[in-house]
Design a protein that fits this description.
417 residues, 2 domains, 13 helices, 16 strands, nine-stranded antiparallel β-sheet
């Protein structure tokens, strides 16, 4: 099973310059290859392959000698990423590849091979850059695996893991170096421990929970539990407004303006980290306490077009929360079910099935005209989400249909992980 581990690194000034050169050069190669591929197909209907793009790097280095100062495998990986983007687009899993721009904070490159990790001094070696301080705040492999299975080398009494020496084991995959808008550098190491995915455990009505995500409350469970929305962005709006004013008052191109921009970016980074930490804790709690979870297949991209709700929806981060639930369920052998976005949940009485068509967004509670049951809007919706998935699952017998999904991609999302 593959997992990515992200660590912060602390390069010195010289290494920062080298990292910036790698970011810019990889971006340049990606954009150049994108231009070549589009031009060759539009003019001559020729589909340029990865081999063709890599061969073009040789002539490109003659035109631009500074390309030779960059790790060649990182440049080849840029071509591979480009073709992966086209593949995902034609399979319906992504957008059409576009030019990369540093103004969009697109700072990353990949190192497929030949990196090393010094476990004694907490440093990482990147080709063409050297040894960089890294904070290994958690283990990426068990100590027993490192001691008994991996090939290590000892230099001056220091224990070093070399990706090249362990290439046959195929445990250490691609390493990604990135930079955030706040100027922080990270490396993400993809590890394949070759442990098979756990078999999904059995689940029933008692071990399944329905989740209704919201804005006022972060999530409401069919059990009646309400998880409050911390609203990290809303609580920081006054601070962000003040920092944004400081940026606008500084002269463009000045050092003071760059400092003000850095302060603003750091605060945005803080908000993102708070939201990410909160979602990790909540998703882990739900995965640990239940065997199956049911959610709605929400059209988040369409919902944020409503300018009155866009900021609140972006602040709560529904899509990222569902993504965390999905891959963690895959790790621990749990099941994720989804109901269709057009299935009635809030308007349907979970007791008798009566549908209240005139229910509005402002109605937080309502009384069923048929059985006279008083409903909390969100708790009722969570119960209906659970019931719709389980009832259809028992009737039809397949998760894809049980979730009320029609497209192949949507049915794949609904299958157990």
């Amino acid at each position: 099973m593959k997992r990515g581990y992200r660590y912060r690194i602390y390069p010195n000034k010289e290494q920062q310059i080298l990292l910036e050169q790698h970011f810019g050069t990889v971006r340049f190669v990606y954009n150049r290859s994108l231009l070549i591929k589009k031009l060759m197909y539009s003019k001559f209907k020729i589909n340029v392959s990865e081999i063709d793009l890599n061969n073009n790097l040789t002539s490109l280095k003659e035109l631009h000698p500074w390309l030779k100062d960059i790790n060649s495998q990182s440049l080849q990986q840029a071509n591979k990423n480009l073709l992966t983007g086209f593949k995902n687009f034609f399979e319906g899993n992504g957008r059409y590849p576009t030019r990369k721009n540093k103004r969009n904070n697109d700072f990353s490159f990949q190192v497929p091979q030949n990196y090393q990790i010094n476990l004694t001094t907490s440093k990482i070696y990147l080709p063409k850059i050297g040894w960089i301080k890294i904070v290994l705040h958690r283990d990426f492999l068990d100590k027993e695996v490192i001691e008994n299975e991996l090939v290590t080398k000892e230099v001056n009494g220091e224990l070093i893991l070399d990706q090249k020496l362990n290439r046959k084991l195929d445990i250490f995959k691609t390493l990604t170096v990135s930079k955030t808008s706040a100027g922080r550098y990270h490396v993400s190491i993809l590890i394949d421990d070759h442990v098979p995915e756990p078999i999904p455990v059995e689940f029933n009505e008692n071990t399944t929970v329905g989740i209704d995500v919201g804005i006022k409350s972060f999530a409401i469970l069919s059990s009646g539990e309400v998880i409050e929305n911390p609203k990290f962005l809303k609580k920081s709006l006054m601070k962000l407004k003040k920092l944004q004013k400081e940026v606008s008052r500084k002269q463009k191109g000045s050092k003071n303006r760059k400092k003000a921009i850095a302060k603003l970016a750091k605060h945005h980074q803080l908000i993102a980290n708070q939201r990410n930490d909160f979602q990790h804790k909540i998703s882990m709690k739900l995965i640990s306490e239940n065997q199956a979870l049911v959610t709605e297949n929400l059209n988040v991209s369409g919902m944020i077009k409503n300018h009155k709700l866009a900021q609140a929806i972006s602040d709560v981060g529904w899509s990222e929360f569902i993504r965390k639930l999905t891959y963690k369920a895959k790790w621990y052998g749990k099941t994720i079910l989804q109901i269709g976005r057009f299935d009635a949940s809030s308007k349907l009485c979970n007791i008798c099935g009566y549908k209240k068509d005139d229910l509005t967004l402002n109605d937080r509670g309502w009384e069923c005209s048929s059985c006279k049951t008083l409903h909390d809007r969100d708790v009722n919706a969570a119960i209906n989400i659970k019931n719709i998935a389980l009832n259809n699952l028992n009737t039809v017998g397949t998760t894809g249909r049980a979730c009320g999904l029609t497209g192949v991609g949507q049915r794949n999302e609904a299958r157990s992980h």
